[in-house]
């Protein structure tokens, strides 16, 4: 007797990968300008191009007055820049599409190997964006986020408004101060992005059993229309794979 397929369990990893990759590229309009979005003629080694509009939606979802914010100079070029980043916190200016290489997540080796061992150096170029950041002397969320994306760590710290625990933790995380970041996230009241960051950090500390509940809860609270849910589900699937292989 053939057993009917069940649709009650969690999505298969392949389905989550397809959904995540679909979020990264805009096949219909990737090579045109639309509503002021200038898309660079660049393709990632994987063959996928990141839609700057989708990245902007994810990058600003935690920012105050997000619908009214305009992208800074060179945003499309910054979005398309190849980076070696797998452990992506949910914070200002960051976006799930920053994850550009999936195979290292699926290897049997420890995930902690994918974390930078030291502070990453500043990204070269982006003179127009850096001039725009320099125009902001007082702390401001978007310039702080852009400085952090460029690995201009001192400027990012100086521009970070006070009292933003998640953003400070994300700054520590991206600078390679991972344990310090997790300690901060564990002290912040629970919200979906905090739950995600707690789970993400534990996953890359090779603690899949501890990571999985946080990631599942974040994905459930966000719902299918949230730009960060696909990454939460993908990380949760990776945690499940590692638990099954243990």
What descriptors fit this protein?
Tetratricopeptide repeat protein; mainly alpha; 246 residues; disordered N terminus; 48% helix; TPR-like_helical_dom_sf
What does this structure look like?
The chain has one domain (13-245). With 246 residues, the chain is mainly α. The protein contains 12 helices and no strands. The chain is globular and about 50 Å long. The relative contact order is 0.13. It comes from Thermogemmata fonticola. This is Tetratricopeptide repeat protein. InterPro entries: TPR-like_helical_dom_sf.
Low-confidence stretches: 1-10, 25-47
User: Whole-number average pLDDT?
Assistant: 85
Portion in beta strands: under 5%
Measured between the Cα atoms of the first and last residue, the distance is 32 Å
| Apparent shape | globular
Largest sheet: none
SSE-based structural type: mainly alpha
- Give the C-alpha Rg: 18 Å
Number of self-contained structural domains? 1
Give the count of helical stretches.
12
What fraction, in percent, of the residue positions are helical? 40-55%
- Quick one: how many beta strands? 0
Order of helices and strands: HHHHHHHHHHHH
Organism: Thermogemmata fonticola
Protein name: Tetratricopeptide repeat protein
């Amino acid at each position: 007797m053939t057993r009917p397929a069940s649709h009650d369990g969690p999505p298969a990893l392949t389905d989550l990968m397809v959904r995540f990759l679909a979020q990264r590229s805009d096949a219909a309009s990737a090579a045109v300008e639309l509503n002021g979005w200038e898309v660079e003629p660049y393709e990632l080694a994987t063959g996928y191009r990141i839609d700057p509009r989708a990245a902007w939606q994810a990058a600003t979802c935690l920012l105050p007055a997000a619908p009214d914010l305009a992208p800074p100079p060179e945003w499309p070029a910054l979005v398309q820049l190849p980076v070696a980043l797998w452990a992506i916190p949910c914070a200002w200016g960051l976006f799930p599409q920053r994850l550009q290489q999936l195979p290292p997540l699926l290897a049997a080796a420890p995930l902690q190997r994918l974390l930078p061992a030291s502070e990453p150096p500043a990204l070269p170029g982006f003179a127009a964006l850096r001039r725009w950041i320099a125009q902001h002397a007082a702390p401001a969320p978007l310039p702080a986020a852009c400085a952090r994306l460029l690995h201009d760590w001192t400027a990012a710290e100086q521009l970070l408004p006070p009292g933003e625990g998640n953003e400070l933790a994300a700054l520590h995380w991206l600078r390679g101060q991972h344990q310090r970041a997790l300690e901060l996230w564990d002290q912040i009241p629970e919200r979906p992005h905090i739950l995600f960051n707690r789970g993400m950090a534990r996953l890359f500390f090779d603690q899949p059993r501890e990571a999985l509940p946080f990631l599942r809860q974040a994905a459930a609270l966000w719902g299918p229309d949230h730009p960060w849910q696909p990454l939460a589900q993908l990380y949760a699937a990776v945690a499940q794979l590692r638990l099954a292989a243990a």
